[in-house]
Amino acid sequence: MFSLQRPPQSSGSTCSNKCTPNILPCRVHHDGPVNSVDRFWIPVPDVKDKALQTAHFRGRKLRGRHVAVPEGYQGVVAAPTERVIPSKPAENDDSAPEEPIKILEQQSTFEEVVVWGHETMPASDDPFVKGVEEWIKLAEAMHIQPSSEKQPST
């Protein structure tokens, strides 16, 4: 299990960082900072629709679509840490030990992502575009409190 937490205040980092994640249709085998991003990544907004973009990555043309995080939700970029939340002592020794809760540290937040496709714009049935809406609906269904009153059937 995981617990999402803000970074400790003593670390000097703040969570006021905002970003726009880009979901690329390729695998990049690098997960650190890049010194000259502007030299390699220059998305150009579409003249007719500012929610669409065009960029080139390693010689391939990419088309991007902005997908907003639904109102009332916030996207979070998190990084794993070595810290864990101590588990509560078990009442009886017969039960299996609880899995430790690992802490994910919030790095930044976002209100939209850009989903990219090769040569063409990602369609509305693209797994990442669809996933934002479907995961939110699933989360809402899982956390809804059942009503004590019976709803009339139609």
In short:
This protein is 14% helix and 33% strand.
Secondary-structure blueprint of this entry?
Layout lengths: L1 E4 L16 E2 L13 H4 L3 E2 L6 E6 L2 E9 L6 E11 L15 E10 L1 E7 L8 H17 L11
Parallel strand pairs: 1-7, 2-8
Antiparallel strand pairs: 3-4, 4-5, 5-8, 6-7
Structural class: alpha/beta
Mean pLDDT: 83
Instruction: Report the CATH topology name of the domain at 18-28 and 35-75 and 110-143.
Output: Lipocalin
Order of helices and strands: EEHEEEEEEH
Strand order of the biggest β-sheet: 2-8-5-4-3
Number of strands: 8
Number of helices: 2
Largest sheet: number of strands, sense, barrel closure: 5 strands, mixed
Which CATH top level class of the domain at 18-28 and 35-75 and 110-143 fits? Mainly Beta
Radius of gyration: 21 Å
**Helix proportion range:** 10-25%
Q: CATH architecture of the domain at 18-28 and 35-75 and 110-143, please?
A: Beta Barrel
Shape: extended
Strand content: 25-35%
N- and C-termini, Cα separation: 41 Å
Low-confidence stretches: none
Organism: Aspergillus terreus
GO biological process, one term: RNA catabolic process
Pfam families: RNase_H2_suC
InterPro entries: RNase_H2_suC
